[in-house]
């Protein structure tokens, strides 16, 4: 599968951009009082993109040598993906007040950015490492 590494990584990164853009649009629209972000087609589109994102991630994991993850960046990244998912659920659905949903939304975007920087830097500190 190594011969498809670049294509698989391209799929991973393209779906990251799409997934982030859809979350940004849905979260902002919900906070503005709109209802379309929770419509079934939008939700299923979002689930579909995230499934492709994670499938590509698993394929990259199987292709790459374990030594690439020796400093723990992938472990921190996956832990933050879980945090991002929980925050996303609170931002879009579970947050009881508008303030709670807004706080979860902003935190989720910050966590998403940190996941991105961790991946780019191949370092658990992500943005902090790049700017240090
Ligand atoms: C459980 C979820 C995820 C896993 C297991 C995972 C795993 C990986 C792996 C193994 C790579 C290849 C690294 C390399 O080629 O050197 C990668 C690349 C990347 N991932 Fe993820 N990923 C996940 C989710 C995400 C998310 C949610 C984001 C977005 C914020 C993201 C952003 C990136 C980026 C930008 C790259 C390219 C890094 C580079 O240029 O070297 N990943 N990911």
UniProtKB/TrEMBL annotation:
InterPro entries: SirB. GO terms for cellular component: plasma membrane. The chain crosses the membrane at residues 12-32, 44-68, 74-92, 99-119. Keywords: Membrane, Transmembrane, Transmembrane helix. Signal peptide: none annotated. The lineage of its organism: Bacteria, Pseudomonadati, Pseudomonadota, Gammaproteobacteria, Lysobacterales. It comes from Marilutibacter alkalisoli. This is Regulator SirB. It comes from the Bacteria.
């Amino acid at each position: 599968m190594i011969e498809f590494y670049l294509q698989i990584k391209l799929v991973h990164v393209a779906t990251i951009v799409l997934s982030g853009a859809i979350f940004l649009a849905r979260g902002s629209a919900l906070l503005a009082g709109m209802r379309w972000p929770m419509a079934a087609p939008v939700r299923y589109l979002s689930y579909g993109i995230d499934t492709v994102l994670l499938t590509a991630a698993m394929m990259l994991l199987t292709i790459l040598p374990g030594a690439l993850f020796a400093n723990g960046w992938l472990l921190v990244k996956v832990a933050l993906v879980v945090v991002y998912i929980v925050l996303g659920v609170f931002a879009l659905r579970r947050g009881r007040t508008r303030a709670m949903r807004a706080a979860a939304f902003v935190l989720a975007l910050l966590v998403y950015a940190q996941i991105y920087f961790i991946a780019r830097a191949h370092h658990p500190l992500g943005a902090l490492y790049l700017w240090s």
